[in-house]
Amino acid sequence: MLERGEVANSWRRERWDSLRLLTPNWQSRLPGLRYEGKDPDGYMTMPEVTEFIDRFAKVFGAPVRTGVNVTSVRRAGDGYLVMTSDGEMSCRAVVIASGACNQPALPKFHADLPASTRQLTTFEYSDPAGLPDGGVLVVGASATGVQLAAEIQRSGRQVTLSVGEHVRLPRVYRGRDVLWWMDASGVWDQRHDEVDDLTRARRLPSPQLVGTPERATLDLNALTALGVRLVGRWAAVRDGKALFSGGLRNVFSLADLKMGRLLGTFDEWAREAGRDSEVGPLERFEPTRVPETTRLQLDLRSGEIRTVVWATGYRPDYGWLDVPVVDQKGHLRHEGGVVGSPGMYALGLPVLRRRKSSFIYGIEDDAREIIGHLAQHLES
């Protein structure tokens, strides 16, 4: 096992200080290791996640070689030649477990912002104290964007949040964590070959959730109550001005509609499975409130916005992979983790084999099936 940094490197080095897992502690489990603390309904902090993964590696004696950077993987005979910062090695099979969040995904126009505007990605942001005084524009309203918007607004800076397509969810529904519903109802076990639009499912933004001791819901209504200003999707930069799309009402209505359908699915499952008595009464939530007025542009040279924080998602980095298995958009071509090159596999990507594939507890089922395929390949 080759790791460019330390065990759990991305959790140690590429997360902001206050981040917690979105999944409750009882869902934090790996093969043979699970959370055994006193707060099963809480959410792990980054140091706790790091310790959990580090303990897993030590308990099972995983043969991890840390500080080894892979610079090239290419076909060689019936296997692969792997070039690293610690020399080269040959192998018959390769499992790519580098994830889908290697680099921030930025729009091309980020280069057109005035030099006076400080720009940060979520890899670079640590806490509000590291930001200049003045207004902050957070771009992206998935889990990361709403969490950073709330944290920075509470620090005393005025936050404007640029909102595009998003997935709205309550933190708790009918007395249970919403991810309990995803797990118990079988939604998260839906396989990749059962999903109607797999490409879209793999590109969906993460839901608007936050892990806090209060198990609070952090949606756009909660942000508005904090004083965060909402604008539409950032479409362009022209003459130093940020231009935003209109149509927030439609964006909000679509997110509300999808949330309602999902909660209805949970209700139907509870009724048919005879589980209604185990949960609270039916709930429905207030629609997302549309601002009375919405700004369509901001002059970035005026000083109103001093900092832009890009929470626009991530993209994988396969620049080291010298095998023709990456599409034009930079994504790995695979069928349930079986890559289109003999003996090459992937793990840890969104909806790899199931909807839960990219979560810590979702890796075990995927890994067992990938290992089975890999073993058959070696035997043949």
Q: Helix tally? A: 8
Overall form: globular
Note the main sheet: 5 strands, parallel
Instruction: Compute the separation of the termini in Å.
Output: 23 Å
Integer-rounded radius of gyration: 22 Å
Mean pLDDT: 95
Q: Estimate what percentage of residues fall within beta strands.
A: 15-25%
The SS-based structural class is alpha/beta
Number of strands: 23
What's the arrangement of strands in the largest beta sheet? 10-19-11-12-15
Low-confidence stretches: none
Kindly give the count of domains: 2
Query: Percent range for helical residues?
Result: 10-25%
Based on the model shown, name its key terms.
globular, alpha/beta, 2 domains, single chain, 380 residues, three-stranded antiparallel sheet, FAD/NAD(P)-binding domain, five-stranded parallel sheet, 8 helices
What does this structure look like?
The protein has two domains: 2-102 and 315-379, 3-Layer(bba) Sandwich (FAD/NAD(P)-binding domain), CATH 3.50.50.60; 106-314, no CATH class. Helices cover 24% and strands 21% of the residues. It has eight helices and 23 strands. Strands 10-19-11-12-15 form a five-stranded parallel sheet, with helices on one face. Strands 5-6-7 form a three-stranded antiparallel sheet, with no helix packed on it. Strands 16-17-18 form a three-stranded antiparallel sheet, with no helix packed on it. Strand 5 (70-76) and strand 6 form a beta hairpin. It is globular and about 65 Å long. The mean pLDDT is 95.
SSE arrangement:
Blueprint: E1 2-3, H1 9-13, E2 29-30, E3 33-34, H2 46-59, E4 65-66, E5 70-76, E6 79-84, E7 87-91, E8 94-96, E9 103-104, E10 118-121, E11 135-139, H3 143-154, E12 159-162, E13 172-173, E14 176-177, H4 178-184, H5 198-203, H6 220-226, E15 229-231, E16 234-238, E17 241-244, H7 248-272, E18 297-299, E19 305-310, E20 314-315, E21 334-335, E22 338-339, E23 344-346, H8 363-379
Parallel strand pairs: 1-4, 8-23, 10-19, 11-12, 11-19, 12-15
Antiparallel strand pairs: 2-3, 5-6, 6-7, 9-20, 13-14, 16-17, 17-18, 21-22
